[in-house]
Amino acid sequence: MKVLSISGFILSVLSFVTALYLQFVLAPAVESLEESINTGFSDELTSMMLYEAHDVKVMTGETLVIAGSVALILCIIPAMKSKSKLALFGALLSFAALLAGLIHGTHMFS
User: Fold this and answer.
1) Where are the alpha helices (H) located in 1-110, listed in sequence order?
2) What is the domain count for the chain?
3) Domain of 44?
């Protein structure tokens, strides 16, 4: 159970850091590009950058859904059986990453 707990925690930390990058770097960049296109001060390069940035945002969100789900499963099992604090904290981090992936990757909340 300890190995499962540690591997789930590592995956949950990695997915949580990726979720923070998505929330605070990629999403504002896409919003900024959308705003520059909506004001009319854009060219073809800006629209291509917007489409690429949006694709990266959605793909990162989809990846977070998968990684967050796997990390949540890997952390829930040891948390239920041995009440490990590391596994409980990993489950919390992976749930936050999963939620960020659902928000940005599936357009469920848009």
Assistant:
1) 2-21, 27-38, 44-82, 85-105
2) 1
3) 2-105
